[in-house]
Structures are given as structure tokens and as C-alpha cells.
Amino acid sequence: MSREYKAVPVAPGIAIARVLQRRLAGEYIPLLHLEDAEVPGEITRFQKAREQAVSSLEGLMETLAAKMQGEEVGILKANLALLQDPGFGKDVEEEIQKNKINSEVAVQRIVSKYEEVFNSMDNPTLRQRAEDVRDMGNQILASLLERTQESLIAPGEDYILAVDEFLPSQLGHIDTARVKGILMGEGGKYSHGSILARSLGIPCLVGLKGNLGKIDPGTLAILDGDGGKVLVDPGEDEIEEYRVKLEEIREAQTRVFEVRLTSSVTTDGIKIKLEANAESLQEFEGLESGVYDGIGLFRTEFAFMERLQFPSEEEQFQLYKDVLERAQGKRVTFRTLDVGGDKPLPYLRTPPEHNPVLGWRGIRLTLRWPDLFFTQMRALVRASAFGKTSILLPMVTNLQEVETAKGILQVILKDLNEQGIPHGENLGFGVMIEIPSLAMMMDHLKKMVDFVSIGTNDLAQYLFAVDRDNPRVSDLYDPFHPGFLRFLADIAKSGRKWQLPTTICGEISSESSLVPVLIGLGFRRLSMSPVFLPRIKLVIRSLDSGSCQRLARRILNLKTAEEVRATLKKSMEGRSRARRKPG
After folding, report:
1. Quick one: pLDDT band at residue 395, thresholds 50, 70, 90?
2. Phi and psi (nearest 5°) for 431?
3. Could you count the other beta carbons within 10 Å of the beta carbon of residue 219?
């Protein structure tokens, strides 16, 4: 009888192999007090160790250059930038000099301070920077202690790697041809280890915590990256069941590669516009032009988060211009600065709030800082001369906010025209529907905007009155809830009625099982993380709109999220059998 452990699925797929355990052993580093004369030499020792760590990471990037996609390159480049950051080096050197201590302890202290800052942030994307800092510290300590990286390879056989945490610097120490899955005790969906696993196509589960230690080394296991579980010591029936599923996945992967550059059209000729969500230039590096129809959501706030002060108009203009040029003529929808709440800026002081998720964030914040908003809008309008540009307002509550923002846009356009500064003529202007009250105002929005985008992550959070990052209530956050799907159905109906283009931008657009429902509800624009685009395109090309409409009607009449999932699973299995049927 197998043992089953639930976990968080972060990279889809199935792995059947024996487990290679590589747990953290911990390491005690003694504190050494230095004489004054020893301090300069110790600082030099730290500098050399950091240079060695940089050289090692550059070597890893060169070795893996042929295997890596844009997202992986971006992660390793970010880690390299951390290693080379002069501020970090200065902090460690000052710690050595001030306290006259050895480099190892100084590095641990400064890394710990950096980690504490990032771990205190509510936003998952910013919290993952603590992981980067920890990885950086490990690399420098390895150089200082002259130790070699522990092998993450099981020679000569396929394996499932079990680690407390998978860090970017470990990428060069795994056998990507042999590792069939990764199990992590810690980490989240957006940790760099999870992103790397998805990019490499390695099924991955995180959040096993104490259960990871219950899986003995060498034990046969089945990692289900779709179902969010690991089966330890499976029986023959379970092994055969998952071998069949694994073969189906391999066949699907072949079909995904074959269709990735084709049109996303249903079998009855309905075009579904597939767009990418992005937050940096690096995400364009591995993105083939034929895979996507445009950038449905470019999150501008990440350019602000990576800095120590507000970027100038000229710096923003150059970034937006570069993005438009990388898009090669495809439309890019830039979301204006969406900070506050779970995305604080270290250099923007705001009053403490009891419930920041419901507080001062998005357009609520930027309209109170007109210089900040004006500067960004002006940079965006100037950049629109270099490609098709749309501007998207986040966290809109009422029509007055839309009117105010549009008034600022008109002032900027008038000012640029008077100065003879070029800008695009076909500038789109839209709002994100994240707050339920705004969804009820589509008839008025039609007169004010060119399009709307639905941020399903926040919309669901506010509809359910659930903080999705609060572990005590996060289980109540469920986008498969029929009440939420009914709400989406109403938005889609309003969009059609008022001829207002409506895009789904949240995570549900990349849920394969939900895509037929979204199409059945009438959505024709989906925007998602680039990694999911080919797979969703394959799903779309297997559907016909009539069947999708019938499925959507059935789903909307159900009572629970469990019934929705069961119905969608049955529907997917039926389509899979139909594809395998001869003739």
C-alpha cells in the first residue's frame, strides 16, 4: 500500500523513479576575532571569494547557454547582479572592519539582514528575493570554505531529486537528462527553483516540509505534478496507471511543439487571441514571435521594485521603448504602476495599514502622487511612437478615477503635440476589472475606455472576501467556485453587449481544464505566462465553440467547486478518448 503526501504543484507532469535525497545538513562556522593588522587581508579574502563565486556562476551560464530559455537566463543574470552588487560588498566589508570578524560570519550576518527585509514583504515575488540572497551567500561561503558543491546526480539512472530548497546555483549540478522530478520541502509557486523546474520541463512539487524527511533515499516514488501529490512505494496497479498517463503526456508534448507557431483557432474557426504576461525584457528572449499575439499585460512595477529610487521619465521611456521594439509590431498593454498592498516599494514610505490588500494601492495611490503618475504616463505616451501601445489602469474602484486618469492623459497628449514630440496615434486606454463594483459599470465604461482586462486573481480575492496569502483562509480562495464563474459569465455578457474587448489576465487563463469554459462563456482574449502559451494553444485547437458553450452552461448550474472540477475532469477525459479513437 503506497503512502500519499499532498504538496503544491508548481511544474506539471509525472515522474516515476527512485528518490535521491539531498537535504540540508547545516554547517557551523565559528566566529573569529581579528587583530587590526589582519582586517585588510580578511577584506581581500572576501573580495577574492566573491570574484570566484562570480566566475563560477558565469561559467555555469556559459555551460548551460544552449539549454536555457529566456526566463532561466534572467534568473541567473539576476543572481549574478546580486553577487556583483557594490552595496552588498560594501556592507560585508564594513561588517568585517567594524567588528573585526572573519569573512564567513560577516557574510552570514549581512545575508541574514537582507533575507529578513525580503521575508517581511507580503508579495510572493519580492519574498523570493530572499531565496536569491541566500543562494548568493551560499556561493560566497563555498568559495571561502573551499568546499565543492554536493553532487545532485544519481549516476547512471533516472531519479527524483528531493531537496529542502532548489536554488539557481544548483542548476549546474543536476543531470537534466536524468532528473525526472523535483520535490522541495520549502519554496512556493513563484520561487526561482519552481520557475527553473517549469522552464526545464521537470515536474515539481513544493511545500512538503516535514513529509520530505519521511521519504527514504532510494525509495520508488510517483510524483504527480498535475494532481499535487507524491506516492511513495506505489503498487503495480498505480505504477501502470501512471505509466499510461506519462505516455499520454509525452504524446501531448509532441503535439504542443508541432502547433506552437500555428493559429489559436477552434475546430469551427473561432479565433482566440493568445497574449503573454510579462514583467521584464528578459521574458522576450525565449519567446518565439509566432507563439503569441501580443503582450496582454506588462507589469511596469517590477522596474520600480528593482531600484533604490524612482526611475526618471527618460529611464522609463527607454525601457518601454525597448519592450515595444522587442514585441516586433505586436501590441503591448502596459499596466501603470501597481504598488502598495502586497507590492511595497522600499523607497516609498506609506502609512501603516491594518489591511493593506484593501488599502492604498494601484491607481488609488498613484493618483494621490500626480508627479509620479504624470511621469510614467508621459514616458508611456512618448514610447508609443515605437509600437502599438495600450495603457491599463490597475485597481480601479469608480468612474471618477478613470475620468481623472484620462484627463491627465489628454493633458500629456496636448503638451507633446505643442512641443512637436512624436507619439503613437493608435493609443489604447483601458482598465483592469479587479474590484467587483467596477464590473457592474460596463455600460458606462464603454464610453470611457477602449478595452477592459480582468485580473482574476484579485477579483476572486475580493469576491470571496479572502486574503489568498493568509494560510488560515486561503483554502476558501477557489477560482473553480461556480459563483465566481457565474460572475465571469456576467462580465463576458456585458462585454459582448457593449462591444467592449475583454481579456482574461489572471492565472485561470492558463488552466487547461477551464479554457473550454472561458471560451464557452464568450471570452476571446486570454493572456498568461509565456510558458503556458503553446499548451493552451493545443487545447484551443482541439475544441469547438458549440461544445464549449454546452459545457459552460452545465458548469454554471453546479453548486460546488468540487463538482466543477469533477465535471471538467470528465470532459477532458472524454476529449482525450476521442483523440485516441481510430479514424
Report:
1. very high
2. -130, 155
3. 15
Q: Which of 204, 423, 481, 505 does the annotation list as catalytic?
A: 505
Half-sphere exposure of 158 (CA within 13 A, CB side): 10
Q: Which residues pair with 14 in a beta bridge?
A: 224
C-alpha 556: how far from chain center = 29
* String of DSSP letters for 407-446: HHHHHHHHHHHHHT----SS-EEEEEE-SHHHHTTHHHHT
Q: How high is the pLDDT of residue 242?
A: 92
Annotated catalytic residue, options 33, 192, 444, 481: 192
Q: Which of 191-200, 446-455, 550-559 has the lowest mean pLDDT?
A: 191-200
The Cα–Cα gap between 336 and 370 comes to 13
Report which of 250, 254, 195 is spatially closest to residue 530, judged by C-alpha positions: 195
**pLDDT greater at residue 85 or residue 199:** 85
pLDDT score of 303? 75
Return the DSSP state at 142. H
Closest to 501 (Cα-Cα) out of 459, 561, 449: 449
What confidence tier does 220 reach under pLDDT thresholds 50, 70, 90?
Answer: very high
**Beta strand pairing call for 3-6 and 229-232:** antiparallel
Q: In what order do the strands lie in the sheet with 229-232?
A: 3-6, 229-232, 220-224, 14-22, 159-163, 179-184, 204-206, 8-11
Q: Parallel, antiparallel, or unpaired for β 451-454 and 428-433?
A: parallel
Q: Tell me if 230 sits within 8 A of 8, measured CB to CB.
A: no
Rounded mean pLDDT of the chain? 85
The x, y and z cell numbers of residue 280, run together, are 521584464
> What one-character DSSP code corresponds to residue 202?
-
pLDDT for 343 = 59
Q: What is the pLDDT of residue 402?
A: 97
List helix spans (H) across 436-475: 436-439, 442-445, 456-464
Please tell me the distance from the alpha carbon of residue 575 to that of residue 376, in angstroms, as a whole number: 47
Mean predicted confidence (pLDDT) in 505-534: 91
- Catalytic annotation present for 192: yes
Contacts of 258 (CB under 8 A, 6+ apart): none
505 classed as catalytic: yes
Residue written as grid cell 476589472: 433
What is the CB neighbour count within 10 angstroms for residue 327?
23
- Quick: pLDDT tens for 439-497: 999 999 999 999 999 999 889 989 999 876 666 777 788 899 999 999 999 999 999 99
| Alpha helices, H only, 260-348 | 301-305, 313-326
pTM to 2 decimal places = 0.69
Domains and CATH numbers, the chain: 3-24+150-234 (3.50.30.10), 36-144 (1.10.274.10)
Supply 486's cell numbers. 457565474
Could you tell me which of 358, 441, 428, 418 has the C-alpha nearest to residue 393?
428
Q: In whole angstroms, give the CA distance from residue 71 to residue 282.
A: 6
Backbone conformation region of residue 273, classed left if phi is above 0, alpha if psi is from -120 to 50, else beta: beta
Question: One-letter amino acid identity for 105?
Answer: V
For residue 7, the SS3 value is coil
DSSP 65: T
User: Nearest to residue 551, comparing CAs of 531, 571, 536, 535?
Assistant: 571
- How far apart are the C-alpha atoms of 272 and 296, rounded to whole Å? 13
